[in-house]
Amino acid sequence: MHTRTRVVAFQPPVCRIVWAPRFAVKSASNKNSRRASQHEVKAATLTNLSSDRTERRSFVDCASEDTLHHPSQLPDDRQILQGCESVRAPLNVAVLLSGGVDSSFALHLLNRAGHNVQAFYLQIWFQEDFRNYWDSCPWEEDLSYCQQVCKDADVELHVVPLTDEYWDRVVAHSIAEIKAGRTPNPDILCNSRVKFGAFYEYLASHQDHNFDRIASGHYARIIRGDDPDEPVRLALAPDAVKDQTYFLAHLTQPQLSRVMFPLGSLNKAEVRALAKAAGLPNQARRDSQGICFLGKVKFSEFVEQHLGVWPGCIIEEETEEVLGYHQGFWFHTVGQRRGVPLNGGPWYVTQKDVHTNTVYVSRNYYSVDKERNLFTCESVNWITRPPDSASQVLCKVRHGPVLYKCDVSFTNGDQSAVAVRLECNDQGLASGQYAVFYQDEICLGSGVIQTTGVSHAEIGSFVDDQTKAVL
Q1: How many CB atoms neighbour CB 243 within 10 A?
Q2: What is the pLDDT of residues 302-314, one digit of tens each?
Q3: Is the peptide bond before 341 cis (omega within 30 degrees of 0)?
Q4: Catalytic option among 84, 190, 406, 424
Q5: Is 367 a domain residue?
Q6: Cis peptide before 387 (omega within 30 of 0)
Q7: Which of 32, 242, 376, 461 is the most exposed place for a label (fewest CB within 10 A)?
Q8: pTM for the model
Q9: Which of 269, 294, 319 is the last residue of a domain?
Q10: Quick one: which of 248, 203, 247 has its CA closest to 95?
Q11: Which domain holds residue 162?
Q12: 292 an active-site residue?
């Protein structure tokens, strides 16, 4: 029987949930607190992962992977191979290899588990036509590490060109969303449309590639029943900081039914230590940051190249006074503080008017009278089923360990649109973001945020009486 441990968010006290998978959730709140910390989301957990695993203390700092302590004792073989479906070996497994330590150690585990493994490096980088930063993207280094890992493991490596697919399905869509004033998430799109979308199509068009599973180095768990026709479930990983279910929540059941996440039962510190013990050539390589295809080009430069510059007014929300000017609303997002070209701050972006090219700001962004806990979602993808009333629904509005308790109301008959009320405010809600829903440890699915800042009365008007199901 799994034990459960409370996780406490440190000062300043905020109305938030910090989730350690398999453990109880504690919400820290303080009605007198006027400002929620954006950076000091920390958790101290005393974990006992299972009856056959040594209890250990783990201090997790969300700001940096480097703060993870080296585990005092590594898990045993049964725990290490828990995400590899060893009982079904040998399966034919295609491994998505990136050159990083996570996917490389996933390949190593699959070999240990006795599967027939082939590796695939997805070529999704491209050269921007406005500046030659080809050498700034470490794709050659990535591929070199992939080749070395596969050579050491005696595994065949394939390079799959998906540059056009990545541009058409991820980059072009993201540019269009930014132009419309929304805040897209390219990582979610890359998983659903490329890694587990276009790559599936590539395998289907190459009959010599017949695989039972597609594996990757994501930190997430797959739960399969004994019945092969039973839907698979996506579950949180033990590492609350590295958990990547947020990025996987828009996969469909057909996509998810083929995947395998060998690292699902491990945390990042354990993977680092085990990769070192295994002698992987990239054991100490740092995780990639940002979007590879941009190289050293700043995201703002990329946006400027594709959307240009459109000067407009910056207006104080409370007084409607023009305080200054910006270069285009698409360079700003709700909740932003850095990069607002004004003195006398800190100034926070509160909203954008895409029709008048106006950016509204305030120095009182965190005032208690400014509720930011209501929004609607469309294009909702339920992986297995919509939420039920059996247990509390939780919601993530961005990647990380923070979840909110929430109420969910269906706003149409097919349950593909919902209205959501968070237990407390989130200061960075923006249209275009993804909201991901959970019950217990299971990820139910996700939807795209459409409207934010709606009132309780407006939420009620969205809900059809015949389909209303507040959970």
Answers
A1: 27
A2: 888 889 999 999 9
A3: no
A4: 190
A5: no
A6: no
A7: 32
A8: 0.80
A9: 294
A10: 203
A11: 77-294
A12: yes
